Amino acid sequence: MRGALADGLLMDANTNKAATAVEITGLTRKFGELIAVDAVTLSIRQGEIFGLIGPNGAGKSTLIKMLTTLLPPTSGSARVAGFDIVSAPAEVRRHIGYVPQLLSADGSLTGYENLLLSARLYGVPRAERAERIGRALARMGLNEAAGHLVSHYSGGMIRRLEIAQSLLHRPTVLFLDEPTVGLDPGARETVWERVLDLRDRFNRTMIVTSHLMDEINEFCDRIALIDRGRIAAVGTAAELKARVGPGATLDDVFIKLIAEEKETESGGSYGEVRRARRAARDHG
Amino acid sequence: MAKSDAPAAPPAITADRPPGRLESFITQTFAVAAAEVQKLRHDPIELLTRAVQPVLWLMLFGEVMAQVRGVAPGNLPYLDFLSAGILAQSALFVAIFYGISAIWEHDLGVLQRYLVSPAPRSALVLGKALSAGVRGLSQAVIVYVLALILGVGIDLNPLAILGVAAAIVLGSGLFATLSLIIACIVKTRERFMGIGQVLTMPIFFASNAIYPLSLMPGWLRAVSHANPLTYEVDILRALMLEKGASEYGLPLDFAVLAAATAALVAVAAVMYRRMGY
C-alpha cells in the first residue's frame, strides 16, 4: 500500500523544496448526521506556513485531529510526511509535531520534566536527551524557567514550552492549533518569531489555525478558508483578498466568502465555547 | 547501548530512527510512571491527605471491631487481620479514581500530548497502571507505619515486603486500568464520580478485606471469589503479617491478579485512543 509513491514523496521531501508535505484527498468525517469535514482535498508543500481559517465549528480542529491521527476519518485519505494516516498512523506520529489548542503541558511537572517525558515517549536516544532538551529550552527562551513548575508559567511561556515539546523529535510537519489564543500581543509576537525561525532554519512545514486575521495575513504563505467542513477558498493572502475587491482585508474575505455560503450565525457549540474559554483562561 | 553515529550538523531535519520495539516500549511505559513519581515529589502533601482514610478505618472501625471475638480466623488478632484489608482498600481507593485524572487530562488537553506520540497505546495504558502502582506503594508505607504503631504483628522480612510491593503494584494497576476503561466510556467527571462510588463499595465489601468469606452467605461468597481484591488481600495477609497465612496459595493469587491486569490493559489500550476524539 505504501510502496513507490511514499518513497518518492519522502525522497522529494529531503531533496526538493517544493515537495508535498501533506496530501489530502476527499477526507471526510461524520459525527452521526453531522458532516464535520466534507470531502476536503488539499495539498500542502514542504516548508510552507499554511493557515487554516474559518468560523468556529467549521471543521478546522476535526481536520487537524484526523491529520494527526487522533481521529480516524469516515472516508477519504491523507498522507502526512509521506505516510498514510490510516494504514501507518504510528509513522505519521513519529514525523509530526502537534501543539493542540488546549493546554497540553502538564502543570504539575517542571518545564524540564515535560520535555523529558516527550523525549522518552518519542524515543529520543538516551545519550542525546539532555543536549536536545537543553537546546530546545534555549531556542524557546526558557532556560531560566526550566526547573520551575509549569503551573507558575505565563501563557506565552507555556505555549513556547509546548512548541519545544513538539519539536524534540525533529518532526517535518508541525501542527499548531490556535497557538496564540489567549496570549497578549507581546507573547503572540514571540511565538510567531519562533515559528518563522523554525521554518526558515529547517524548512519545516507548519499548519496553523487562528482567528486573528492579522497574523494569518502576515505570516502564512497560503491560506485555506474552511466553512461547514468544506474548503471555501485556497490561495495566498493577496489572491484571496483580490477575490473580494480592491483594498479588501482578510477580515473582509472571511466575512464575504462565508456570508456568500450561508447567513446563519456562528459562535461555536457550547462545548467549543467552554473549551476555548478554558484554554484562554488557563493560558491567560 | 548503541553509540549514535549521526553526522555532524545534518543539513536537513531527520526524524529519529526508532530504537528496538521492546526497548522503546519499556522506555515509554516507564516515562509515564516516572512523570507520576515526579508529580508526587512536587506535591507530597497529597500523600498525607491520602493517609487520613486508613487511619480512620484502623483506629475507629478496627479498634471497635477488635472487641468482637471470632471474626478473624484462628489466633489472628482482628486488627492484624484488618490491617492487610485496609492496605488493599486504600490502594484500591487511589486506583479506582484514576480514571478521573484521565478525564481531567483529556479535558485539559494533556492527554492529546500522549496520544500524538508514537508510543503504542498499550505502553501508555501500562504506564498509567504502573503510576497507580507507585501511588499504591506510597499508601503501603503509610499503612505499615500505622500498623506498627498500633502494635500489629508485621513481618519485616525483606522478601515478604517485596512480595507485598508486587501485590500492591499489580492490584493498583488492575483497578486503575478498570477505572481508565470506565473513564473512556463515560467521558465526563460528573458521570464518573457516580459510577466510581457505586463501584468501590461492592469491590470493597464483597471481598475478604474486613471479614472472612466464611461469614458470608453463599451467593456473596461466590461474588467475592470472582473479585480480584480478594486475591490481593490474600497475598497481603500472608506476607504482611507475622501470623498470617494464604487461603488460596500465593501462586494462584498472583496468577489471578496478573491475568486480570493483562486482560484489562488489552481492553484499555483499544479504548484509550477514543480519548483523542
Kindly describe this structure.
- The complex is a heterodimer of chains A (284) and B (277).
- Chain A is α/β, with parallel strands linked by helices.
- Chain A has a single domain, classed as P-loop containing nucleotide triphosphate hydrolases (Rossmann fold).
- In chain A, 44% of the residues lie in helices and 22% in strands.
- In chain A, the strands form 2 sheets. Chain A has a 6-stranded mixed beta sheet with strand order 6-7-8-3-9-10, sandwiched between helices. Chain A has a 4-stranded antiparallel beta sheet with strand order 2-1-4-5.
- In chain A, helix 4 crosses helix 5 and helix 6 runs parallel beside helix 7.
- The longest helix of chain A is centred in the last third of the chain and has 18 residues.
- Chain A is globular, with a radius of gyration of 19 Å.
- Chain B is built from 12 helices and no strands.
- Chain B has one domain.
- Chain B is globular and about 55 Å long.
- The N terminus of chain B is likely disordered.
- With 277 residues, chain B is mainly α.
- Classes of the chains: A alpha/beta (284), B mainly alpha (277).
- Chains A and B meet through helix 3, helix 4, helix 5 and helix 11 of A and helix 1 and helix 6 of B.
Q: Layout of SSEs?
A:
The complex is a heterodimer of chains A (about 280) and B (about 280).
Chain A: H1 3-15, E1 20-31, E2 34-45, E3 49-53, H2 60-67, E4 75-80, E5 83-84, H3 89-95, E6 96-99, H4 111-121, H5 126-139, H6 155-167, E7 173-177, H7 185-202, E8 205-209, H8 213-219, E9 222-227, E10 230-235, H9 237-244, H10 250-261, H11 270-283
Parallel strand pairs in A: 3-8, 3-9, 6-7, 7-8
Antiparallel strand pairs in A: 1-2, 1-4, 4-5, 9-10
Chain B: H1 21-42, H2 45-50, H3 52-65, H4 78-96, H5 98-108, H6 110-115, H7 121-149, H8 158-186, H9 189-205, H10 218-225, H11 228-240, H12 250-272
Helix pairs in contact in B: 1-7, 3-4, 4-7, 4-8, 4-9, 4-11, 5-8, 7-8, 7-12, 8-9, 8-11, 8-12, 11-12
